[in-house]
Amino acid sequence: MDGLRGLTADDPQWIGDYRLLSRLGSGGMGRVYLARSEGGRTVAVKLVKAELAAEEEFRDRFRAEVAAARRVGGRWTAPVLDADTEAAVPWVATGYIAGPTLSEVVGGSYGRTGSYGPLPEHSLRRLAYGLSSALLDIHGVGLVHRDLKPSNVLLTIDGPRVIDFGIARALDAVGDQTQTRTGTVLGSPAFMSPEQVQGHRVGPASDVFCVGSVLAYAATGRQPFGGLGSGVHAVMFRIAQEDPELAGAPDGIRDLIRDCLAKDPAARPAPGELAERLGPVPGGPSAPPWLPAELIARLGQHAVLLLDTDTPPGGQPPTVLTTRTLPSPAPPPPPTAAERRRRRRRLPLVATAVVAAATAAAAVPLLSGGADAEAGASDIPARYVGTWSGPVLRDGTPTGQQRRFVITHGTVGEVVANSTSLGATYECRSDGKLVSVTRQDGHPALHLDTTVVRSVPAGRCAALGEHTLEEGGAGTLTWAAAGRTATLHRVAPADGAVPAGFLGTWRRPNDDGYGSQQLTVGQAAAGSKVLSTVVVGRGGRCTAHADLYAAEGGKLTVGPSVVDRAAPGCTPSSTSVLSLAGDGTLHREFLGDDKQPRGYSRVK
């Protein structure tokens, strides 16, 4: 049966009152099992990762989210049936949905005959109605899904179902700390909202954006902002700044998808508005099938296989044939009440080693290159992983440029580094694919092929050919490309935090005495928007923004500005450095020759 894997000797046989039948998968919170209650109901049991269980903030949020999720109901979601939020390793049981994920159906991994590809328009309308109805139920009890993606949408004979609602938000209790410590954000990169990729707090409108991305994928078979093959950084940039690719989406639903994908959360329709726009959607036993006939037939086969799995011959747990199949042990008798109490205490000790190895699919590094590879399978030495920065030399002479690398684990052929080159008048960002690893002077040398993913101003940046990174002295890395070199020093995560003294709004009058210039500095990670500028002058109103390059030494270095709204006489500014003067004013010095230094007073 699709998606099922046999239990191993390391898996517990029981979780609470539920006997485990097989593994379903793993995710950001832990491992998920197919199980059966003592009354015979088939359920999905999610066992939380041990390291999350040790976080008291996570546990507090987990209790609250489970309580809220119980109130959602099960028409368009998987209902929460049971949970033990007080166990040393908490768990939650939901109703098991007998159907494939949307990603399996559209992406080609469901069934023996391969992909069903994009769904027809009548199926898309029913899918959109189901997703909007699920959000009405989820948001109605104060939850935000935060990770709505094709693998969290299950297709059944009578409509779609949304899973992992609300519970994903419990990760936020530790996610905010993780954001500060390691620069990670919650969500799946290709299906995040602009708020998520920019590190802002998310609300119900974020889920609506994700509905748009899911519908675009179901309608075209493609991710609307590109796949991760081009690098996580590039996908996140497109989500925040570029229009979605909707070619091939049916005309009858394309506008609805585009409205969901509005960059401004306030411009997106609410779930109730979506349901109204779709109009009455046929349902019930007399309604025509909402999915293609061949897919409906496959769903029926899926249900039969589920019954076989739920009641295996002789009561044996299901097995998966491999090159070496071991006989399954005889199933234990149902536990007594006393045994169940002992098992609840014993389970965490048995499961700790198992869940500690579960992968965290919902926590992705901000600006990282592709999905995290396990260190053991990586071609990148662990000591190379992290953020590195330093000044650039050309033929031994300083150029005034800065170069930053964010290096992650990965293998040859994968994007393992994101690079930022900052000059006085430009900022270039590139993804680096690992070409090879050689040894020079006894040290590993990484050879990267880079692709420009962002250029400010547009068209200014070009790839430099092969980049080489190798160990230098005193814990540094040496970078070389096209005659340029740099000694890179490791940048601690805390160096990216904007000091509190900079935060807020600052203003100065224009030099001609008419209008003003206003700066707003917000909290941001390196590579994210930190500075918003509003200039009101005789020509009108001009707005722009700039990203943070570094926060160190009591100064903020921000890249050249990008104009959001132009007016006559409105021009972008060069790279600049912000500092706080002794009299409490904000000082801004431009590294280009376009503007003189400026001082700003705090707006009360």
Task: Write down the overall geometry.
Answer: globular
- Proportion of residues in extended strands: 25-35%
Q: CA-to-CA gap between the ends?
A: 64 Å
Number of strands: 27
Walk across the major sheet and give the strand order: 11-12-13-14-15-16-17-18
Domain Protein kinase: 18-291
GO molecular function, one term: protein serine/threonine kinase activity
Protein name: Serine/threonine protein kinase
Binding site for ATP: 46
Short description:
By secondary structure, the chain is α+β, with helices and mostly antiparallel strands. The chain folds into 3 domains: 14-307, Transferase(Phosphotransferase), domain 1, CATH 1.10.510; 367-491, Lipocalin, CATH 2.40.128; 495-602, Lipocalin (Beta Barrel). 24% of the residues lie in helices and 30% in strands.
Question: What does the model show?
Answer:
- The protein has three domains: 14-307, Transferase(Phosphotransferase) domain 1 (Transferase(Phosphotransferase), domain 1, Orthogonal Bundle), CATH 1.10.510; 367-491, Beta Barrel (Lipocalin), CATH 2.40.128; 495-602, Calycin beta-barrel core domain (Lipocalin), CATH 2.40.128.
- The model is unreliable at 170-186, 310-337 and 339-376 (pLDDT under 50).
- A hairpin with a 4-residue loop joins strand 13 and strand 14.
- With 604 residues, the protein is an alpha+beta fold.
- The chain contains twelve helices and 27 strands.
- An eight-stranded antiparallel barrel has the order 11-12-13-14-15-16-17-18. Strands 19-20-21-22-23-25-26-27 form an eight-stranded antiparallel beta barrel. The protein has a six-stranded antiparallel beta sheet with strand order 1-2-3-4-6-5.
- It has helices at residues 50-53, 56-69, 102-107, 121-140, 172-182, 194-197, 204-220, 232-241, 251-260, 271-278, 293-310, 337-356, and strands at 14-15, 18-26, 30-36, 42-48, 80-84, 91-95, 153-156, 159-162, 184-186, 363-365, 386-394, 397-407, 415-422, 427-440, 443-456, 466-471, 477-481, 484-490, 504-509, 516-521, 529-537, 540-552, 555-558, 562-565, 576-580, 586-590, 598-602.
- It is 24% helix and 30% strand.
